[in-house]
Amino acid sequence: MKIFQVDAFTNQPFTGNPAGVCLLEKAVDAAWMQNVAREMNLSETAFLLPEEDGYRMRWFTPAVEVALCGHATLASAHILWETGKLGRDQIARFYTLSGLLTAEHCGDEIELNFPATPPSASIAPAGLAEALGVSPRYIGKSRFDYLVEVASVEDVLAVDPDFAELRRLPVRGIMVTSRGFGDYDFVSRFFAPGAGVNEDPVTGSAHCCLGPYWGQHLGKQEMLAYQASARGGVLRVTLSDDRVILGGQSVTVIVGELLA
What we know:
With 260 residues, this protein is α+β, with helices and mostly antiparallel strands.
């Protein structure tokens, strides 16, 4: 059974967000997929099973299954085209816990069509700001995660969370974000210790929330975003009604076979 490691939302190896992509030959149980994801020890590993006109897709962190993941979907589409499972002019169709997701080539990038998950103003769980070490300008909550806006890019870069404390809070993930710099409209970082990932290098699903949020504040439909993790990553974000189009590139770094 083929398995790949792909650096997503980058065109340079060893940057962006590494994802596992496993091409299944038959249906397998969730416990086996969770074990493989734990073995890969990446923020997410995607599992693809051919189904009708597309693929059934599930995503696992080393600790849990998740309902939406952008970078592993980008990596999966990249592998389907790179291995010839799909022609470059074909649309990749994925049936997931978040409904039908699609991916297609657009020049040098792959574009993902994802559901928008805009935030609503919220009161954060007690201890969240203290665990992050920030003074929030705004706190919101999307379908999955909390969004915390801070005053500047420097504040985003300076966040040094207390992961043990974050892990105790009833949250899946936390986006810390601010207006951007240079060509970037906004920047962010993403922390999800409760899902087994202290800091995710580049988080596509978070931009389904960040895109609508900053689109409203900046008055833009198209934005360039930078996720300011140690590895870093760049995403093109386009708003389209209740959908978010995420654009990025990917690079395959490991090709292997599962023997267990």
